[in-house]
Amino acid sequence: MARTIAILGGTGPEGLGLANRLARAGERIVIGSRDAQRATDAATKLRDAIGASAQIEGAANAAAAAQCDTALLTIPFNGMAGLLKELKPAWKPGTVVIDTTVPLAAAVGGAPSKMLGVWQGSAAEAARELLPKEVSLAAALHNLSASLLEGDAAVECDVLVCSDDEKAKQVASELANKIPGVRAINGGKLENARIVESITALLIGLNIRHKVHSAGIRFTGLPL
Question: How far apart are CA 138 and CA 154, in angstroms?
Answer without folding.
Answer: 24
